[in-house]
Amino acid sequence: MKFVVSSSVLLKQLSAINGVVSTNPIVPILENFLLTLDGNSLTVTASDLQTVMITEIEVESSEKGAIAIPAKLLLDTLRGLPEQPITLQVNGETFGTEIISDNGRYKLSGENPIDFPKTPAVNRGQSVEFSSSALGSAIANTLFATSTDDLRPAMTGVFVQMGTENATFVATDGHRLVRYRRTDIKSDVDTSMIIQRKALNLLKSCLPSEDLLVKAEFTSSNAFFSFGNIRMICRLIDERFPDYENAIPTNNQNTLTISRMEILSSLRRISIYSNRTTHQVRLKMSLNDLVISAEDLDYSNEANERLMCEYNGEDLEIGFNAKFLIEVLGNLSSKTITFELSAPNRAGLIIPVDQEENEDILMLVMPVMLNTYV
Amino acid sequence: MSAPLRKIIHIDMDAFYASVEQRDFPEYRGKPLAVGGSPTGRGVVATASYEARKFGVRSAMSSRKAIQLCPDIIFVYPRFEVYKAVSNKIREIFSRYTDLIEPLSLDEAYLDVTEDKLNIGSAMEIAGQIKNAIRSELNLTASAGVSINKFVAKIASDINKPDGLTFIGPSKIESFMSSLPVEKFHGVGKVTADKMKGMGIFTGADLKKLSEEELVKRFGKTGYFYYQIVRGLDDRLVQTHRETKSLGAEDTFTYDLTTPEEMHKELDRIGEIVFNRLQKKQLQGRTVTLKVKFSDFTQITRNQSFNSAVTDIDAIIDTAKSLLDKVEMNEKPVRLLGISLSNFHEPEIPSRKPKYPGQLELFT
């Protein structure tokens, strides 16, 4: 088979799906892109068995055929070439492949396309449509809170609940939790699934900057996304997501409203003085008064700051891992945020005061038990 | 040039379990007391108070024998939860002075105080302060040995028990070792001691006359260790994390077992305990060891090793049973059975140590 394509167009499309290709895959064939030619349509597939990404490119050809080509070799070649039409010529018997450019000829050996794993087919899934920007912010707001602990597989992905009114995205690592709801993503039928963090990461990085329509379909084992000329199929995590609704405390009498940037930068300074393993900081609240402090007894380090705030509730002292608070606050964009607290051993809720239209964000951080020093 | 001398403290609580009981129950104070199994049944003494030791009562002695030696002895069941809690407090005291702590059991530990965390200046002073802290905070006494290595420190702690504090400096080590009776050497049990005495070796000095070659020939690889320690050489480090070498369970029965059926039934039960412990610690061993103690207190062990870890509960129990079936019983009743696993693999699942101490969990 043989086709002609613009080197930069090919490079752009391959780069979009290259994230799936792992450097040390379980099956060696997965180090390759699968190229399938059908007239002037070239389909390129990359897979790590969990996630498959496919892109379609228009090329000049009237032939048919397929070849698996080493992804790194092909990409490196394209990156080094100035923009120009290039010709790819494949020997269907030997799988030998030749790239012909104005600069010269590059020969590499491909592999039998039959060895490349088959892509799971969509059969009668639940289909949903939404804008790429809505999906993008749902991923951006939740992905950071997922767990990397393979022993708790359910938490290594984002839990997605599609309903007739809205869609809820939940991520947690057992210490902090994000519940992100959007009213502009809806489904005709209630459906829920856990999507792997790696897949969402890839999805996030290849979502276009301009707003596009994303078509999604969900079956019991896979999620399918398609937008522009890219398709993604990812295997769902087949686990039960923890009962997060019950973990969110509802009766929080104490509320603290404060500038997000102010508390965030205070925490960044104070945490320098906190214990290096626990990152523990204390938040001490009384009427319209907040004192943040930390100490590291091993090094005799100590710091405290008093912040302006609006606090209503009983006097309260609560400990948090500064890393978690900083991360959660850093992932919000609201100018002002409200902490809702009940007791030193119960979860603290962080809610942005100014929420975007269609958006409902709730973040939660579990406290650290304060050890009282003598 | 040799490495700078280390400063090692060995701390040993005096009659630990018994002292805790006497501390918590004033009515036991000043009286012979044994912590351990029931005297009417077939228990053994775990710890005897000093009052009881005067009558010859020792640890690991059968409770029945203890009561023969000392008819007034009071028996109490051990409260391990309490001992464990006290032991944690003791370790907390240690940790004020050093981070290099190697606990040997609930009541014994090595400390390396070469690096003087509180700038106290002398290892003897540190040992004294630790003893005082244990006395004032926990109302218990401990004996301490101070030297330049673990072996000598341990022997030193045993010299002035109870409430002792002994220092054996580098210059005194060799002469001290020479005068030491062989049974006092760490790792020399009754059997080895008798073997040595049969060879005319009674003290460290006798042991020192033998060449390294000869010791290795007679005592195997521990011979090398004897050669070193009799010269006061012991470069074993104080290890904060001891690797578990074997894990098992054993039980002394309320009456002696005589039939294979009874014994198999007990092995089913013990095997399950062992399996649960292994799971809890996430260990997988290649070697199954069976221990049998007969009614005359003689004891044998038999083991079998496999090429891969024995992970299945039935495999553990079946191996123990087949080992038992091969034992020559000579019609002797069996008093105790035990199963243990050793030759551990790295566990397949990494352990779940909390990353952030004190951090509360959302889903428990």
UniProtKB/TrEMBL annotation, chain A:
Residues 1-119 form the DNA polymerase III beta sliding clamp N-terminal domain. Residues 247-367 form the DNA polymerase III beta sliding clamp C-terminal domain. Residues 132-243 form the DNA polymerase III beta sliding clamp central domain. Pfam families: DNA_pol3_beta, DNA_pol3_beta_2, DNA_pol3_beta_3. Keywords: Cytoplasm, DNA replication, DNA-binding, DNA-directed DNA polymerase, Nucleotidyltransferase, Transferase. NCBIfam families: dnan (TIGR00663). Belongs to the beta sliding clamp family. Forms a ring-shaped head-to-tail homodimer around DNA. This is Beta sliding clamp. It comes from Dyadobacter linearis. The gene is dnaN.
UniProtKB/TrEMBL annotation, chain B:
Mg(2+) binds at D12, D107. The active site is at E108. Its main location: cytoplasm. The record marks Y17 as: Substrate discrimination. It is found in: Cytoplasm. Its cofactor is Mg(2+). Poorly processive, error-prone DNA polymerase involved in untargeted mutagenesis. Copies undamaged DNA at stalled replication forks, which arise in vivo from mismatched or misaligned primer ends. These misaligned primers can be extended by PolIV. Exhibits no 3'-5' exonuclease (proofreading) activity. May be involved in translesional synthesis, in conjunction with the beta clamp from PolIII. Belongs to the DNA polymerase type-Y family. This is DNA polymerase IV. It comes from Dyadobacter linearis. The lineage of its organism: Bacteria, Pseudomonadati, Bacteroidota, Cytophagia, Cytophagales. The gene is dinB.
